[in-house]
Each structure stands twice: as C-alpha cells, then as structure tokens.
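RECORD TYPE: inverse folding
INPUT: structure tokens
STRUCTURE:
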C-alpha cells in the first residue's frame, strides 16, 4: 500500500475515534480519553506542567521524539484539526474549487510572533490565546457545538416515537449551547474552512501554535524531505499537490518547518527524485534557506513577545486574580479557580460527557484569562452526586480525577438561602423542594407550628446545586455561591433527622 494511503487511513481512523470520544457518552469517553489524549500536544504539555502523570509524560516525550526524528508528522497523523482540514481540501479538489496548490512564502514574522505571545501569556497564567488556537481544543468545540445538536435531535425524536408505543425507558437530552460561544466556534470554523479551500494547510503554518512549535523542532529533525536538484525538470507536479505550500520548485528546496509529511509529493514526482532520508552528516546548503531565516525571525519575534509580556499593564490585564467578584463555580476536582483557569484549554470534553449537562460553555465568565472555559450552570441543572466523569476525561488536569467518596466531601460552593424570596418564609406555606433533593442533608426543616422552615448547615454542603435546581421560585430563593478554593466538608450521617424542633438554633442542630 502506498504511504499516502496509509497516512489517510490512519488519520481518518484517529479522527473517527475523536468523534466517539466527544459523542459516545460517559463510558466510551472515559475509555478512550487515556488512550487518545496523552498524544495530543497541548493537553499533554499542560498536563505535564500542572499535574504530571506517567502516561502523559510518555505521550509528550513520544511526540517530541517523533518530531525530532521524522519532523511534523503529528500534524498529518494525530492532529484532529489537521485531518479535518484534509477533508476540506479533498472536497475542494473533488468539487473543482481548487485542484492545484502553489508555493507560499513563509509568514515567519506572523507565525513566531503569535507563538511567542501565546507561550508568554500561558506563562503569565492566561489561557486565552491557547484556548483560541489550540487545534485539539478547537476540534473538540466544533464537535460539541456542531455534531451534538443533530445527534440529540435524532435521539429525542426516537424517544418521542417510542412514547407512542408506551415505552418510557429513556429520558430526553439536550445540547448545552451558548450563543456567544457558538458564534466564536462558527467564526473559527469559517476561518478554517476558507483557509483550507483556498490555501491548504495555511492555518497550520501561520496561526496554529502547535504547528509553529513543531516547525521549529523539525529544523533539527533526523529525517528530512529532499529533492535531487540534478535531475529535477521543474515540472511543478510536487508543488501542485503540496497542501502545506512548502515546495519551492524555483529554488528546488522544501521548507522543512512547514512540511506536514503528507507524502503527496512522493507520489506525484514522475522521476522519483523526492526522498525522505536521514540528514545526519549532510552539509547544510549554502544557498538561500527559508528554514534558516525562519529561525532567525522566530527568535527575534519570541524575544520581542517576551519583553512585551512583562509590561505591567498587560500583566495586570491577564492575571487570573482579576476575575469577577462572584466568579463561576468550577467542577469538582478543579481544586481552585486559579488552578482551573490556568490549566483548562476549553476543549469542552467535560461539556460533552457531563450526564446532567450542568457543565456548559462560557465566553468570558472567568475574564480574559479564562476565555471560552466552561462553568457549572446553576440553577439550570445540577451536579450528580455519584458522578465523577468530568475528572476522568479531562486531559489537562484542570479537573483532577476524584473517587466518588472524595467527590462527595468536596465543596465547590456553599448554599445561600434567600429568606426574603423563599415561599415558606414569605407566605408561611410549606414547600420543602430543596430538602427533598439535597443528597447531603445540608438543608433541614425547623418545625414551627406545622410550618416546616428550611435551614442550611454548610458543614455538609458540597455545592451540587440540586436544591437550587429544584427550587420553584423565580428568581431562585436558594443559590450556590462559588468557592475560589475548594474545601473538604463533613460526611453526613445517614440517620440525620430532617425535621428539627422549633427551639433548635440553626448553628446548634443536634447532629
């Protein structure tokens, strides 16, 4: 089988696995996550920095070693966004929109300026640029925003059909869409689509931080693509099929930093003059070298970005401490607001796998440093007491895995009962919706003349939001306020009484 066919088969297989990762439900996602995500560059890199585990260290090391030996093959085989672009490019050729490619001059200043600024903002604690441009996270958002809704529509239609046969075994499900986040995702989808149709892998070689970084590493890769200059007749066939635009037939050179190892040129050359061979011991070309110029420009751009980032005004703007006074609630396992915002790449895998859909996309809820990062959407839903799937699938360690026992004593927020809105306190009428659903017995009744008044004891509250979700008043009379740093609470006693005598003060409950 030809190398190009092997490459296409492998990349499509891996892309299919990513579709199952984001759309297969909790069990399939939890199964595929440890197998796929250690070999995605940005998740593995962030995980190694924030909370390293053996599998992610091995995955990141394997990716770097692969690049040092073979160049940017990650971009062709493993990157889901790269495969998506290849699909667009293939469709453009089939439809006759663009059948031939041409050499593109390297946009080194743009490439390495963006890379430098992205690296520095991450070092300063802001994930905003990385969240926007990371290819894995962008693909995850596209799948979550574009593939999930039609799947849920089909699923809900089947459920509706089954009801006509008196079958009620399944519950309806919805896709947690947020218009602002959807708009950003659509904008980047259009950007990727336009670049792919007109210029091939232009996104990979200009805006993608992973592509730019791997391009720098590929300058010293062991194996490189070369052209036999003595026999080349400048037929342009290799240049016409090069989707990366790195085949310079005029100078008979290949820009290794932009080559993604697709093997298209290898098949196109009628004289078999293109080689993928070991470069050890070969003399560097004395002629003009786009790679050499790229390294120089990239180094200068990175240095300038580094100095720019240490401007006090920019540091103040990006620092994660400057978030809103009442920040969103972060999922259990995220440790703290700072840990979450500095580790999450907004891939939205937790959004797609959350069974209650309480984790939803957001645009700027965390400020500029946490652009596109998801949040717990109370009171529209609740965090299931027995569930810990978000921590099991999170690739970066933004949400650390918790056992069910650990999760059930982790307080992500505290309940606040607004008695001036509560129907029991305002109208002296029994309700009890919050007490009935509270899994930790944080809320109990005080019996005052056959009227059961709810009271809160936050020593047991984990901030799951069940009470707020069940509260019938509008606006809600019981809300959850976030903890910037998560806490541990007491495990409730199973025999804890739900109704207390009227003379029991809220802070002196007998349990």
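DESIGNED SEQUENCE:
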């Amino acid at each position: 089988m030809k190398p190009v066919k092997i490459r296409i088969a492998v990349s499509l297989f891996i892309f299919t696995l990513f579709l199952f990762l984001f759309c297969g439900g909790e069990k399939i996602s939890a199964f595929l996550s440890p197998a796929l995500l250690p070999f995605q560059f940005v998740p593995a890199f962030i995980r190694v920095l924030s909370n390293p585990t053996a599998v992610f260290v091995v995955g990141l090391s394997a990716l770097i070693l692969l690049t040092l030996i073979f160049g940017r093959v990650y971009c062709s085989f493993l990157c889901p966004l790269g495969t998506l672009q290849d699909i667009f490019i293939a469709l453009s050729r089939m439809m006759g929109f663009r059948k031939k490619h041409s050499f593109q001059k390297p946009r080194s200043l743009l490439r390495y300026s963006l890379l430098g600024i992205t690296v520095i903002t991450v070092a300063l604690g802001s994930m905003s640029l990385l969240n926007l441009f990371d290819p894995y996270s962008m693909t995850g958002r596209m799948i979550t925003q574009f593939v999930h809704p039609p799947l849920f529509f089909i699923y809900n239609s089947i459920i509706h059909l089954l009801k006509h046969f008196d079958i009620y075994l399944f519950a309806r499900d919805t896709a947690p869409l947020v218009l602002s986040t959807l708009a950003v995702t659509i904008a980047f989808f259009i950007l990727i689509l336009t670049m792919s149709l007109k210029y091939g892998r232009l996104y990979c070689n200009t805006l993608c931080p992973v592509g730019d970084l791997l391009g720098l590493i590929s300058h010293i890769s062991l194996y490189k693509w070369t052209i036999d200059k003595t026999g080349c007749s400048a037929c342009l066939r290799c240049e016409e099929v090069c989707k990366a635009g790195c085949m310079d037939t005029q100078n008979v050179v290949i820009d290794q930093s932009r080559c993604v190892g697709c093997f298209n040129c290898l098949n196109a050359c009628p004289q078999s003059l293109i080689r993928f061979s070991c470069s050890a011991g070969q003399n560097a070309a004395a002629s003009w070298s786009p790679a050499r110029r790229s390294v120089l420009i990239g180094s200068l751009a990175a240095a300038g970005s580094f100095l720019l980032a240490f401007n006090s005004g920019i540091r103040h703007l990006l620092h994660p401490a400057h978030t809103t006074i009442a920040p969103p609630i972060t999922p259990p396992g995220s440790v703290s607001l700072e840990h979450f915002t500095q580790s999450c790449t907004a891939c939205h895998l937790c959004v797609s796998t959350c069974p209650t859909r309480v984790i939803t996309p957001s645009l700027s809820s965390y400020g500029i440093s946490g652009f596109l990062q998801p949040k717990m959407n109370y009171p529209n839903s609740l965090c299931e007491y027995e569930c810990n799937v978000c921590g099991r699938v999170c690739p970066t360690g933004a949400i650390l895995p918790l056992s069910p026992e650990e999760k059930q004593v982790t307080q992500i927020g505290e309940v606040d009962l607004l008695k001036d809105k509560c129907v029991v306190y305002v109208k002296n009428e029994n309700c009890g919706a919050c007490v009935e659903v509270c899994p930790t017995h944080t809320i109990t009744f005080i019996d005052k003349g056959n009227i059961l008044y709810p009271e809160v004891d936050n020593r047991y509250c984990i901030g799951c939001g069940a009470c707020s979700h069940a509260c019938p008043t509008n606006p809600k009379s019981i809300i959850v306020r976030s903890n910037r740093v998560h806490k541990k609470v007491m495990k409730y006693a199973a025999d804890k009484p739900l109704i207390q005598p009227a003379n029991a003060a809220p802070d002196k409950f007998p349990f």
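NOTES: The chain has 22 helices and eleven strands.
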